[in-house]
Amino acid sequence: MNIRDQCTWVHSKYPNEAHNKILDLIKMGVSKAEKLEPLEDISIDVESKALIIGGGVSGISSALSLSKQGFETYLVEKEERIGGMLNSLNTIYPDNIKASKFLEGLKNQIEDANNLTILTSSTVSEINGYLGNFNVIIEQDSKIQELQVGAIIVATGASAFQPINMYGYDGKVRVTQLELEKILKEESFDKNNIVMIQCVGARCEERNYCSSICCMTALKNSIIIKEKNPEANITILFRDIFTPGTKNEQYYRKARESGILFIKYSLEKEPIVKKEEVQVFNEYLGKDMSISYDLLVLSTPLIANEDNKTLAQLLKIPLEENNFFLEAHVKLRPIDFATDGVFLCGSAKWPTDIAQALTQGRAAASRASTILSHDTLEIQGSTAYIPEWNKDLCKGCEVCIEICPYGAIRKNEEEEIEIIQALCKGCGLCGASCTKKAIQIKHFTNEQILSEIYALGGREIA
Amino acid sequence: MSFEPKILGFLCNWCSYAGADLAGVSRIQYPPNLRVIRVMCSGRVDPEFIFQGFQSGIDGIIIMGCHPGDCHYLEGNYEAEIKYDMIRHFLSFIGFENRIQLEWVSASEGNRFAEIITNFTNHIKDLGPSPLQNGKKNSKLVDKIKALEMASTSYRMRALVGRERALTEQENVYGEKIPEEEFQELFEQAIYNEYVRHRILVSLKNDPKSVKDLAIEFEIKPSEILDHMLVLKQRGQITMDKIVGITPIYLNVMEG
Question: What ipTM, to 2 d.p.?
């Protein structure tokens, strides 16, 4: 029953009709209330161990935080070494720390950690169970390991988009920002005319999002080039520049002061890359320009990992339209999934920079510790169940097993349908589909809903 | 006084109910005909609720869920759509298919919510009062909607609807998958058959009748009625009551 938001505020011009509506709503509410029964919370045991999927910055940050809190923590990384994207980076903005040095620091902390197990070259192949009691199967080479954990953190990161067939990309003279990082790791740098193109394959029809890290990466690399070779001419072709925060904005100013040129282009008139020059329509001047280059750098977005779909199915968690993982609520539960006991951080959720990845990693660890710090947990009891008096109705047709999105219904050894209360989220699909109407949903029983309908129709309950 | 329809809305807790709240917080105005029942998921809406709603004299029913792909329960809204398709099919036998609607509204679409409710209310106003409204008892129609309710909530229909996605989206043990068009055809046939069979049951509950009586009552060929009678007899739902002359008279022996 919702009188304020769904009646008074929306019918302010019709006081009489709104009054009648309120009477109806109260009637409906009271008739449901009459049938309500107390809900009992369900108590479940918690395995106070954590699994972190992904050994990049966000995953390491989560793992360190959890292990420091004293929880036994497992970190699974599919590659041979941990560090993720850090391994490919030269420096980290805005403070220009060497990525390798930073990673070394993290690795030292891992070595000092007491109850942290790192499993490299490993993938998660099966996940069963629920909040507090996940059964996970991990494949390491051909070895299979089974783990029981209470919470899972998804920190699988993202991949860099490869601009195949775009702007003459060849990985040598025309490279991505990530490839430029590798070049800049070397001491010598002999290029004089550098052109960078921003938003390559981003903020377009196929990928309608801003990757959020590319502007800063381009600025960072331009400044490094200027430091290595003050004579270098650097031109950044951009659509918009995003440098949120004081430090980032200062970075942008520093870049401009050091003589780096910024030219605005539009999606409608993309730059044309020739063998040694780039032609671009300068939006500010309103005319075509050509700029010669000996190094062309393409700023490409981070894209969702290809295996996100597999993991999403394993964990029964959703993906958003660009195949990044989707949090439970953008503002209220930004680190949680709708599935209890599973959390999300870093670029698996959205392209993040190192600082954000660290923060989110710790946030996820903190959310996970709200579960792991308990021996038992009370969970909400508005679940599906088969009332005692309905037990005989069930004929074992298994429609409910097929329809349950959470795998919460199974047949037990006596071939009876059993609803695992801890897995049930109370959506009610099974109740609406039960061929014998044996399954009821606590707090939303057929009887309760029908009594609301009858109250509205002015009908006595049959 | 102009006709003010009674409209019932089933709103899912996560998207559409929140969308309705947002319309409220934003003070967006819409007609005051809607009465909302909150359910956790649009997939919770049991077909029984719809038929009971219409039998209670409600003029229009709207079900609202999260946009496809946005369901809080992953895929509950797809199940809602399948159930809705079945319900609409059944309702088309009594010309009620336009009195029900399924819509997707997200928690951020307060405007869209108000717009949909305004349009649906106007649409129901145009249709006029439900012929099942109190005081307008139409016993033939009441019998028909009872048959529809029984058919739609029968074991067979529920099993078919509950398995639709499993049947059309997943392969069976032989690696076969039923094409969606083929399923749709079977589905529509099954809906029609179950409807006629349940009409027979409702009619025989009142008093025993012969095949010919039923054929005249329903304006359906006697041979078709006979086919259905045989099925019902096999299922043990009807039995022969007596023979008058050479005509067998049947009786509904179903419980309840």
Answer: 0.92
pLDDT for res B91: 96
Q: Give percent above pLDDT 70 in chain B.
A: 97
Best B37, B108, B168 member to test A by mutation, with max A CBs in 10 Å, is B37
A435–B159 CB contact, under 8 Å: yes
Chain A residues with CB inside 8 Å of B45's CB? 432
Q: What is the mean pLDDT of residues A76-91?
A: 95
User: Among all residues of chain A, which has the CA nearest to that of B79?
Assistant: A429
- At A462 the pLDDT is 43
Which residues in chain B are contacts of A318 at CB distance < 8 A? 69, 74
CB–CB contacts below 8 A, A to B: 159
Strands A417-419 and A409-411: antiparallel
In CATH terms, the fold of domain A45-157+305-377 is FAD/NAD(P)-binding domain (3.50.50)
pLDDT above 90: percentage of residues in chain A: 79
Residue A1 has pLDDT above 80, yes or no: no
Same domain for B119 and B194, yes or no, is no
Q: What is the pLDDT of residues A312-322, one digit of tens each?
A: 888 878 788 89
Tokens of A155: 């920190």
Could you please report the per-residue DSSP string of A24-80? HHHHHHHHHHHH------EEEE---EEEEE--SHHHHHHHHHHHHTT-EEEEE-SSS
List, in order, residues 6 or more apart from A270 with CB less than 8 Å away: none
Q: Which domain holds residue B118?
A: 7-127
Q: pTM higher than 0.80, yes or no? A: no
**Are B186 and B112 contained in the same domain?**
no
Residues of chain B contacting residue A395, judged by C-beta atoms under 8 Å apart: 155
Across residues A368-381, what is the average pLDDT?
Answer: 91
B68-91 tens-digit pLDDT:
877 888 789 999 999 999 999 999
Does the A380-442 domain belong in CATH 3.40.50.300?
no
CB contact under 8 A, A10 and B30: yes
What's the token pair of residue B56?
């209670």
Lateral strand order in the sheet of A174-176: A174-176, A295-298, A193-197, A233-238, A261-264
CB of B97 closer than 8 Å to CB of B84: no
Distance between CA atoms of residues B193 and A381, nearest Å:
40
| Inter-chain residue contact A402 with B74, CB threshold 8 Å | no
Whether A236 contacts A251, CB under 8 Å: no
Which CATH number among 3.40.50.300, 3.40.50.20, 3.50.50.60, 3.40.50.970 corresponds to the domain A164-301? 3.50.50.60
Q: What is the residue type of A350?
A: W
With CA atoms as reference, the chain A residue closest to B16 would be A6
Q: What is the CATH number of the domain that holds B42?
A: 3.40.50
Residue corresponding to tokens 């996100």: A308
Burial class (CB in 10 A: 0-12, 13-18, 19+), B215: middle
- Beta pairing, strands A384-385 & A440-441: antiparallel
Question: How do the residues of chain A divide into helix, strand and coil, expressed in percent and rounded to 5?
Answer: 30, 25, 45
Question: Could you give the 3-state DSSP secondary structure of residue B64?
Answer: strand
Q: Nearest-CA distance from B12 to chain A in Å? A: 9
- A240: exposed, middle or buried (C-beta count within 10 Å: 0-12, 13-18, 19+)? exposed
Whether residues A432 and B83 touch (CB distance < 8 A) is answered with yes
Measured between CB atoms, which of A6, A25, A402 is closest to B166?
A: A402
Reported confidence tier of residue B255, pLDDT bands at 50, 70, 90: low
